[in-house]
Amino acid sequence: MAEPSSFPIAAVIGDPIAHSLSPRMHRYWLKAARLAGEYGPLHIKPADFADAIAMLPRLGFVGANVTLPHKEAAAAIADETEDAVDAMGAANMLTFLPDGRIEARNTDWIGFIEAVKAEAPLQAAARGRALVLGAGGAAAGIVYALQRERWASIVLANRTHEKAQAFASRFQNDRLDIIPWAEKEKDLGDFDLIVNTTKLGMLGAPSLNLDLVSARKAAVMDIVYTPLRTPLLREAERCGLITIDGLSMLMRQDAPAFQSWFGAAATVDDGLRAHLIKALERDRPA
Ligand code: ATR
């Protein structure tokens, strides 16, 4: 093990990594808490992942966030995994313990549920019916969160039905139902929450076209944050519904790692949001 440095050092690991907002977030929180510390991006290829993870604690790192495509490898490499990691088969936070063991957590679901609680408190308290669109890695965190919070009913639709069924077999319980993609607009008035976890609506991708006029009581959430106001969220606004954008979730996903590694509160406020929006605007393709 390396001599402990005079301040904690952590990183986010991915491939690609240049556009990750995590370094900006952690540095914002370090400054706000007037703490010494460092948090940077590390571009690591899948073939080098295991070697890099073995080396980081020796270099004095206290932990690393892990993003695509390493989340499954991060779960597999850990000595200790929490329930969320076992359920999703993926981890986004590795902590290097003083005794040399590696602890894996998955905080994606926390970002989602905290965003719902902050921005749609009535729906969060009701814990009623949720419609989840998509069946990829992002949907896994969201379904895990909804089940863990004991929402009454979760309905999932995915373009590729077989993928939805495979997803459901992993998360199956009596509160998860799969419906065909073509029926995703049916009975929208019954839902308290509608979440897009697909890439639809992202810059360069087709829009997700849902007619939300009948969705009278739903909060509408999009995990896409480029652009921030997706066609789905604009449609929700037009219908007078509460909207929750992808930045709301993202800001809350990284907070547990900051609190754990740097030992201070990670405040999610308008200043952080403005700081991240500035970075998104700077990175936007001309
Ligand atoms: P992530 O891990 O980020 O969630 P992913 O595993 O690639 O990414 O999942 C992407 C999701 O977006 C999937 O649910 C995918 O649907 P399929 O399972 O049918 O591929 C969905 N998706 C991507 N492009 C789509 C499109 N044009 N129309 C509908 N769904 C789409």
Structure description:
By secondary structure, this protein is of the alpha/beta class. It is built from 12 helices and 12 strands. A 6-stranded mixed sheet has the order 2-1-3-5-6-4, with helices on both faces. It has a 6-stranded parallel sheet with strand order 9-8-7-10-11-12. Strand 8, helix 8 (161-171) and strand 9 form a beta-alpha-beta unit. Helix 1 runs antiparallel to helix 12 (270-283). It binds 2'-monophosphoadenosine-5'-diphosphate.
Number of helices: 12
Distance between the termini: 45 Å
Side by side, the strands of the main sheet go: 2-1-3-5-6-4
Report mean pLDDT, rounded to a whole number.
Answer: 95
Q: H/E element string? A: EHEHEHEHEEHHEHEHEEEHEHHH
Considering DSSP H and I runs of 4 or more, what fraction of the residues is helical? 25-40%
Ligand set: 2'-monophosphoadenosine-5'-diphosphate
What does the main sheet amount to? 6 strands, mixed
> What is the count of β-strands?
12
The low-pLDDT segments are: none
| Backbone CA Rg | 19 Å
Name the structural class: alpha/beta
Outline: globular
Strand percentage, roughly? Answer: 15-25%
Task: Please supply descriptive tags for the structure shown above.
286 residues; alpha/beta; six-stranded mixed beta sheet; six-stranded parallel beta sheet; 12 helices; 12 strands; 38% helix; globular; binds 2'-monophosphoadenosine-5'-diphosphate
Summarize the model shown.
The protein is of the alpha/beta class and 286 residues long.
